[in-house]
Write a structure and sequence with these properties.
10 strands; 5-stranded mixed barrel; 4-stranded antiparallel sheet; 151 residues; mainly beta
């Protein structure tokens, strides 16, 4: 029997965007001021100048531009989940300015993508990723990878 695919954080992304756009991060948009939030805000509008409105879920841009990036060369402390017995593999952390929203979102780069593969301003897309697996579950998350890249 296979593992169940489960998002690490429920409601932050979908593998089937309602507009047919495939994998997308999910934010919320205020009906009064149209401000968009990620992570999603379902209770109230965080814009201090907004009188408040209904918050509606919206799929965010599938693409954006690298705003900054760095690499993680050591195992982060808890609550980061990793097997302390497994060898540590460095990863690349990317800050991406989303195409339509103009907000900057952090995420790990797809496996195999290093800082050397990313330049500030280069185009990346959000793709599904795996954070970790246990006996029953594959815990899914989002990653960024260069558009048109071989990765």
């Amino acid at each position: 029997m296979g593992r169940t695919r489960t998002p690490v954080v429920s409601g932050w992304f979908t593998e089937e965007a309602p507009d047919g756009g495939g994998f997308r991060l999910l934010g919320t948009r205020c009906s009064a001021c149209t401000a968009v939030f990620f992570p999603r805000e379902d209770a109230y509008c965080r814009n201090p100048r907004c009188p408040g409105g209904e918050m509606a879920e919206v799929p965010l841009s599938a693409r954006g531009r690298v705003w900054s990036c760095t690499d993680g060369r050591y195992r982060p402390p808890a609550p980061y989940v990793s097997d302390p017995a497994a060898p540590w593999e460095p990863y690349t952390l990317v800050a991406v300015e989303l195409e339509a929203e103009g907000m900057v979102v952090l995420g790990q780069a797809a496996p195999g993508v290093t800082v050397a593969d990313l330049a500030v301003g280069s185009e990346v897309e959000v793709v599904p990723g795996v954070l970790y697996e246990d006996a029953d579950t594959t815990w899914t998350t989002w990653r960024f990878r260069p558009v048109g890249g071989a990765r």
